[in-house]
């Protein structure tokens, strides 16, 4: 609210003046874009490459094998998600 108030936003008028409309644009588009760009800076320095990806994959497979993180339950949903069905093993 502080940004649009600084640009002259008045909640009691039906139509905002051009300066207030610009403030609304800054608050709803400019600020999120700036924060997105700021958030991308650390990602640019993240040391992630194909070699690191391969090392992480090897570590993961060595630690947990070919299992997934989820254990199969006694019941699971049918492919359409309608009703539980028993797993046949």
Overview of this protein structure:
The protein has one domain (2-66). Helices cover 53% and strands 7% of the residues. The protein is built from 3 helices and 2 strands. A two-stranded antiparallel ribbon has the order 1-2. The longest helix has 27 residues, at 18-44. The radius of gyration is 26 Å and the shape is elongated. 2% of the residues are buried. The model has no long low-confidence stretch (mean pLDDT 82).
Topology overview:
Blueprint (H helix, E strand, L loop, with lengths): L1 H5 L11 H27 L5 H15 L10 E3 L6 E3 L3
Report the uncertain regions: none
Strand order within the widest beta sheet: 1-2
Radius of gyration: 26 Å
Instruction: Specify the overall morphology.
Output: elongated
Order of helices and strands: HHHEE
Q: Into how many domains do the coordinates divide?
A: 1
Percent of residues in β-strands:
5-15%
Helix content: 40-55%
The mean pLDDT is 82
The strand count comes to 2
Outline the biggest β-sheet.
2 strands, antiparallel
Helix count from the secondary structure assignment: 3
Report how far apart the termini are. 59 Å
Overall structural class, as computed from helix and strand content, comes to: mainly alpha
Keywords:
two-stranded antiparallel sheet
What is the structure about, briefly put?
The protein has 89 residues and is mainly α. 53% of the residues lie in helices and 7% in strands. Strand 1 and strand 2 (84-86) form a beta hairpin.
